[in-house]
Amino acid sequence: MKKEIKKILVANRGEIALKIMQTCSRMGISTVAVFSEADRNTPFVKYADNAVYIGEAPSASSYLLVDKIIEVAQMLEVDAIHPGYGFLSENPYFAQMVEKAGIIFIGPKAKTIKIMGSKLDAKEAVKDYGIPMVPGTDEAITDNAKAKKIAKQIGYPILIKASAGGGGKGMRVVEKPSDFEEQMQRAVSEALSSFGDGSVFIEKYIASPRHIEFQILADRYGNVVHLYDRECSIQRRHQKVVEEAPSTVLTDKTRKEMGEAAVRVAKACNYVGAGTVEFLYDENHNFYFLEMNTRLQVEYPVTEMITGVNLIEQQIRVARGEKLSFTQKDIKINGHAIELRVYAEDPSNDFLPSVGNLEKYETPQGDGIRLDDGYEEGMEIPIYYDPMIAKLIAYGSDRHQAIERMLDAIKDYKIEGIKTTLPFGLFVMRHEAFVSGKFDTHFVKKHFTLEVQQANNRRNAVIAAQVALRHYLMQKQILKLPKS
Ligand code: ADP
Q1: Which residue owns the Cα nearest ligand 1 atom 8?
Q2: CA distance 28 to 457
Q3: Chain centroid to CA 311: how far?
Q4: Is the shortest distance between the CB of 441 and ligand 1 below 6 Å?
Q5: Is the dihedral of CA 277, 282, 288, 290 positive or negative?
Q6: Residue 79: helix, strand or coil by DSSP?
Q7: 223 within 8 A of 305, measured Cβ to Cβ
Q8: CB-based burial, 167-189: b 16+ in 10 Å, e otherwise
Q9: Which ligand 1 atom is the nearest neighbour of the CA of 207?
Q10: Is 117 close to ligand 1, i.e. is its CB under 6 Å away?
Q11: pLDDT (mean) for 288-295
Q12: Cβ(157) to ligand 1 under 6 A?
């Protein structure tokens, strides 16, 4: 059944809110922004056809207010709500309340979001579909002794994971049996405090994995396609910083197998819209289902660049009841794309947030360069939200060209006033492991952290030498002082 969508409320902020609205405008759809106190003068608010203030800066007082957002949507008679990523995008209650209010939720059904929001329920939902899984427990652990036995069978190190976990949080590596109880206790209390759900389970800790995910797209009529893979192994704190498409390690055969598995995952949960099926890929070329994200991913642009498909447009088309206008064989990989997440973080200080004012903000341009950002010069990066300033995307006819263009773009991107991940981007693009494609999820720890430590040690050694010299000179001077 086709439904008309003339007006969309975007329940999000920053670059993604802006990008959604730009796509809406192109499609002749009018837009409504909701914004917090911290975002009053930001580009997405200025861009929207209508903008409504919804509350104080903390997201609990603004971007997470389900009732308030739906009230605004009803007041302005919008036809649909796009949740973007983060905030309410994977909240089944929100999706349900939006639909209940007679508004289209741009995303899958609340039930699908709920299943895939729990890593354990997700595994259960796909288990009969021939999807390879990481060896581990398939239920929440209630009996430590039993779980310890399973851990022994799997073999250490193992990973304790929060079923409701997300954003790289709620994971604990256990190296040896004697650490099991203590780590288990910590994992449960962390899961409870962070996610309000203490369910944890065990997975084999894959020693040198790569994180490879597949973009999928499904309409309401059971048609599901994948738009190939994204490599997301360059991570800090289990969170992605650099992504690329396609991955350098997959053979055509494995790519096909993984793509088909991703489509089966989507079918297993009656998926509708754009979603991502995440896999771990080990040194022996095995892949394992990790989880499914039921929304647009931050790194979706690299897929757009290599397939030429506008994913936000497709989300809206599916939401208004259109059939997918292409089949699997129509989707081809063309070229290579790399994304660098530009975070307000200090890479030389353990990637700690470095919020402040964008005193200088000059953006790069050039062939194949796309910049998705939501800030302007002079603006403050608020402490309340994810500290991502922008996504810098470089496209090339091959990977080498994409890397070269990314290097030039990073050099042309001038940000002053705060520390950013731009220098880290330079480090990655120049590093032999990245250039050769031989890396895994430990890239940062293995290569970058060591380099930073050595640089800090060198700096500390220089500082220590300077202090010693000053001390020595002062002593000399004191010796030379005339006696009174
Ligand atoms: P989240 O939902 O918090 O993002 P994921 O399950 O998607 O958690 O995992 C995030 C990252 O954690 C992965 O990309 C990978 O780097 C690491 N990881 C997760 N499971 C495993 C595992 N079994 N073995 C090794 N690393 C893992």
Answers
A1: 168
A2: 57
A3: 16
A4: yes
A5: negative
A6: coil
A7: no
A8: eeebbbebeeeeebeebbeebbe
A9: 25
A10: no
A11: 97
A12: no
| pLDDT tens, position by position, 433-464 | 999 999 999 999 999 987 787 787 788 888 88
| Ligand 1 mean position, distance from CA 160 (Å) | 11
> Which of 247-251, 277-281, 464-468 comes out lowest in average pLDDT?
464-468
- Is residue 295 part of the annotated active site? The answer reads yes
Q: Cβ-count burial of 234 within 10 angstroms (0-12 exposed, 13-18 middle, 19+ buried)?
A: buried
Cα–Cα distance measured from residue 467 to residue 453, given in angstroms and rounded to the nearest whole number:
20
Quote the pLDDT of residue 455: 80
For the record, the structure tokens of 379 come out as 């603006």
- Per-residue pLDDT band for 484 (boundaries 50, 70, 90) equals very low
Q: Please give the structure tokens belonging to residue 194.
A: 């962070």
Q: What is the mean pLDDT of residues 176-188?
A: 93
| 100 CA to centre of ligand 1 in angstroms | 34
Q: If you measure from the C-alpha of residue 173 to the centroid of ligand 1, how many angstroms do you get, rounded to a whole number? A: 11
Tokens of 114: 């709920």
**Which residue type is seen at 57?**
A
CA dihedral 255, 261, 265, 270 (to 10 degrees): 90
Asked whether residue 471 carries a pLDDT value surpassing 90, the answer given is: no
CA of 212 to the centre of ligand 1 (A): 11
Testing ligand 1's pocket by substitution, the residue of 137, 190, 280 carrying the most ligand atoms inside 8 A of its CB is: 280
Binding site membership of 209 for ligand 1 (Cβ less than 6 Å):
yes
Q: Which residues pair with 226 in a beta bridge?
A: 216
Lowest-pLDDT choice from 22-31, 78-87, 352-361? 352-361
Structure confidence at residue 456 (pLDDT): 77
- For ligand 1, say whether the CB of 166 is within 6 Å of any of its atoms: yes
More confident residue, 478 or 276: 276
Name the residue with the closest Cα to ligand 1, atom 2: 166
Quick check: 321 pLDDT over 90?
A: yes
Helix, strand, coil percentages (3-state) for the chain, rounded to 5, are: 40, 25, 35
